[in-house]
Specification:
This protein is of the alpha/beta class and 585 residues long. It is built from 20 helices and 19 strands. It folds into three domains: 118 residues, OB fold (Dihydrolipoamide Acetyltransferase, E2P) (Beta Barrel); 262 residues, inorganic pyrophosphatase (n-terminal core) (Alpha-Beta Complex), CATH 3.90.1640.30; 95 residues, Roll (Diaminopimelate Epimerase, Chain A, domain 1). The strands form four sheets. A five-stranded parallel β-sheet has the order 3-2-4-5-6, with helices on both faces. A five-stranded mixed β-sheet has the order 7-8-9-11-10. Strands 14-16-17-19-18 form a five-stranded mixed β-barrel. A hairpin with a 3-residue loop joins strand 15 and strand 16. The longest helix is centred in the middle third of the chain and has 35 residues.
Length: 585
């Protein structure tokens, strides 16, 4: 039977919660949720529930904004050719599309460039600079990349090409020699909000240009749906300005979306209102698939399309790429799991390292995440890349993956990444040595509880708390994401009504009662645990709330994340740890 997860119930300051409840006169559970999200006063609650574009910070607070604006105006006045350069992921392609569409209205001498993921790699590329030099471009605006490209930007300067860098990644000690660097994470940048995505930084530049060029003040609002897509896909905190921008971006996505967003929603089969989860699980994977499987330039072409027909043409290509990506993802995951099963000595390890030379390089990171869904531990998936082996690594929360990879550097040609994800290259003959060293490092440093999935629970409630009015206020807390997660609840001592059943051989349709009330729910991938309900013993259930619509009738239901016998102790590490996957397809 799959292992259960660790349950961690969050805390909230009781006095602050009580004070907020007195001000708002709503269910105290909702006040607890708000306090956990940094909302402690009536005014803060008003701003949280009614995000206003008027609350955005002035773009002029960002270091080098005046330099960037002046250089772009100079280029426009001189008729210089400008190149908009961006990364191949969702953040990069949306940022390029926004900047290109904006500048195209006022500067015809314009083009864009997206590096090829496999021929050029991440970030500024020499091939991109050479393209600009050959084409007579004298100004490059980089978006979602550039902050770590000091040598290449120096090379561009030698070719007579200036750079404006718009980035959100953490800068190194040595900054690139650009004419302007827009990045709130610079040590001496006074911009108050530090968590913008790359598209968000570009949006700030568009806002400043709109002001100095005396364009209609609502001009930047045209790009809010693309910006919301970038915010959702790049897993940046959904608080502060990101919350405001995502909130209004979703409004635009539902009222008057870009042709590309509309085309992808149509191909995804989405007919109802777009939510942030649709951007994460339906729109973003199709955009990312272009760079993973082929060339991300088509994603920008889709976003800048002037007609629905043109956008649909490119969207169909992205949709096809995503189908190929899903097939490769599924096949490689199955092969990787079989490889682990074939090596029984690997099953009880604290890490996973698998390698096959024929696996598609574009999906190894996704496959690493899939394997964590089955064997909850730091994971590396490797494949051939020319004469070398390359791969991606993913971690479990709390474990510093980059440090573990660093400790194995003797077996690597190169590596990079951060706490939760990394990439590396190595010689084919070093794979086995790297696998053993990585296991040695992880086994010696990982804490046992990190090998058990954790669910963070916002509040313990009872079924009588769950009312339509309660749910309606929860919906007003959207958009959900990091720093504002969808609320997770715990109800203890529920019993099966006798109507719970297994559906489609994998899932449980729950029917549970408590407090003289009955509620239904769905638990995906939980069929193997159905015996726990058969004898009507009390169970504790962890869930989120959503609506189930059947024949035009909507009812509230529990989306069950985990359940266990009431009074059961916290689980101890068990191998393998398996649980239902919840990763985007």
């Amino acid at each position: 039977m799959p292992a259960t997860k660790r349950w961690n119930i969050k805390k909230a300051d009781p006095a602050q919660t009580a004070g907020l409840q007195q001000s708002l006169q709503i269910n105290p559970v909702l006040c607890r949720l708000l306090v956990q999200r940094g909302v402690g006063t009536f005014e803060e609650a008003r701003s949280f529930f009614r995000p206003s574009l008027d609350s955005l910070h002035s773009p002029w607070l960002m270091k080098d904004m005046r330099k960037a604006v002046d250089r772009i105006r100079q280029a426009i006045s001189r008729g210089e050719k400008m190149l908009v350069f961006g990364d191949y992921d969702v953040d990069g392609t949306t940022a390029v599309a926004c900047m290109y569409r904006f500048l195209k209205k006022i500067q015809p001498a314009l083009d864009f460039y997206i590096p090829h993921r496999y021929r050029e790699g991440y970030g500024i590329s020499k091939a991109g600079i050479d393209f600009a030099a050959a084409g007579g471009f004298t100004l490059i605006i980089s978006l979602d990349c550039g902050i770590k490209s000091a040598e290449l930007i120096r090379y561009a300067a030698e070719q007579g090409i200036d750079f404006i860098v718009c980035d959100h990644h953490l800068p190194d000690e040595v900054l690139p020699p650009a004419v302007a660097i827009l990045n709130p994470k610079q040590k001496d940048c006074p911009y108050p909000y530090k968590e913008l995505c790359g598209c968000g930084v570009g949006y700030k530049l568009i806002t400043a240009l709109t002001e100095v060029m005396q364009l209609p003040p609502e001009t930047p609002f045209e790009f809010l749906d693309l910006l919301a897509t970038a915010i959702a896909a790049d897993i940046v905190p959904l608080n502060g300005e990101n919350r405001i921008l995502a909130y209004h971006g979703l409004l635009k996505a539902n009222k008057n979306p870009h042709h590309g967003i509309r085309a992808l929603a149509r191909l995804s089969g989405l007919e109802k209102e777009l939510h942030i989860t649709n951007l994460v699980f339906m729109i973003a994977p199709r955009v990312n698939a272009a760079g993973r499987m082929d060339d991300a330039r088509k994603a920008v072409e889709m976003f800048i399309a002037e007609t629905e027909e043109e956008a649909l043409h490119f969207a169909e290509q992205l949709h096809s790429d995503n189908s190929d990506r899903k097939e490769a993802d599924k096949t490689i995951t199955e092969e990787a799991l079989q490889t682990i099963r074939d090596h029984t000595e690997w099953i009880s390890r604290k890490s996973t390292v698998v390698y096959q030379p024929h696996w598609h390089k574009g999906v190894v990171g996704i496959v690493a995440s899939r394997l964590i869904d089955h064997y909850y531990r730091p994971t590396v998936v490797l494949t051939s890349s020319g004469d070398y082996v390359a791969g991606s690594a993913r971690s479990v929360p709390g474990f510093n993956l980059y440090e573990a990879i660093h400790a194995c550097r003797e077996h690597l040609l190169g590596y990079g990444g951060h706490f939760a994800a990394a990439g590396m290259t190595l010689e084919p003959g070093q794979v086995n040595a790297f696998r053993e060293k990585f296991e040695e490092v992880v086994a010696a440093t990982i804490e046992p509880q990190m090998l058990i999935p954790e669910i963070c629970i916002d509040a313990e409630i009872s079924l009588k708390d769950i009312r339509q009015s309660f749910y309606d206020i929860l919906c007003q807390m959207e958009p959900f994401g990091p720093e504002n997660p969808r609320p997770v609840f715990l109800v203890r001592g529920l019993t099966d009504t006798g109507y719970s059943r297994v559906v489609k051989e994998e899932h449980i349709r729950f029917s549970l009662c408590g407090d003289n009330l009955t509620m239904t729910g769905i638990g995906f991938g939980m069929a193997q645990r159905f015996d726990l309900l058969r004898n009507r013993q009390p169970v504790d259930v962890v869930f989120t709330l959503d609506e189930n619509e059947w024949k035009d009738t909507k009812t509230l239901q529990l989306r069950v994340m985990d359940f266990r016998a009431s009074g059961q102790e916290e689980p101890v590490p068990a191998f393998p740890v398996t649980f239902a996957a919840n990763t985007p397809l």
